[in-house]
Amino acid sequence: xxxxxxxxxxxxxxxxxxxxxxxxCCAPVNALLEAFKRHGVGLTEEQVRRDMGKAKxxxxxxxxxxxxxxxxxxxxxxxxxPTSQDRDALMSDLGPLMREQAAQAATLIDGARxxxxxxxxxxxxIASSTGYTREMMEPVLERAAAQGYKPEHLVCSGETPRGRPxxxxxxxxxxxxxxxxxxxxxxxxDSEAGVAEGRAAGCLTVGxxxxxxxxxxxxxxxxxxxxxxxxxxxxxxxxxxRAAGADIVIDSVASLVPALEQHVTKHPAxx
Length: 271
Known about the structure:
Blueprint: H1 3-8, E1 11-14, H2 27-37, H3 45-49, H4 56-65, H5 67-76, H6 84-104, H7 112-121, E2 125-129, H8 134-146, E3 153-155, H9 168-177, E4 185-189, H10 192-201, E5 204-208, H11 219-224, H12 227-244, E6 248-250, H13 256-266
Parallel strand pairs: 1-2, 1-4, 2-3, 4-5, 5-6
Helix pairs in contact: 2-6, 4-6, 6-8, 10-12
């Protein structure tokens, strides 16, 4: 059945945190919470997860734009509204925090390596993209490679004129890897911004629920929930990803190959 994929696709672009590593997408949450705390502003996890998937500078700017966060910033920092200089100061703090947190959370999600191996075995190229900067990604890349995962291509935050949800990171991967048309590309992401990116590019777009930002729990924490609550959280995440434009929604990247095979079988003339 996997030969169906080679007839339909040339490239799969995989997100990182919440998709391939860091079950629950917890590293960026912890880093952002700490960065804002250092400036006297307490954020909630819900606030931090709202714009997940965007370039980290854009994510920080979005957080500062929320009225409740801007108000807390004024209270903690002398009464002035947050400025671009404040964003830059937060980013300076965030870089080392992200490296530390991301390195700790760089274990591949169960089934991720096997999925990539299967896709490559039928001739598909593997690329990746992230809202992390290249510097933030360095320890993640090292740890992932040690576990056998090394994509042919990586686009990081700041390496295109605009980040997610624009399609420019997808376009860059396709240009660099000489892949076209975009209908032969699969974009896989757990964030709404990443799904919207794939949709804007014209890819077949796959949303990840259980391991991703929308559920936001470690594998152990998710497994410990009562079944009804676990299913409810996954269903809520799926609904948000579909609203963002996902063509397919799956629990984790471990289910990607059979999901793609089923989709191609149902849509033999093109998705």
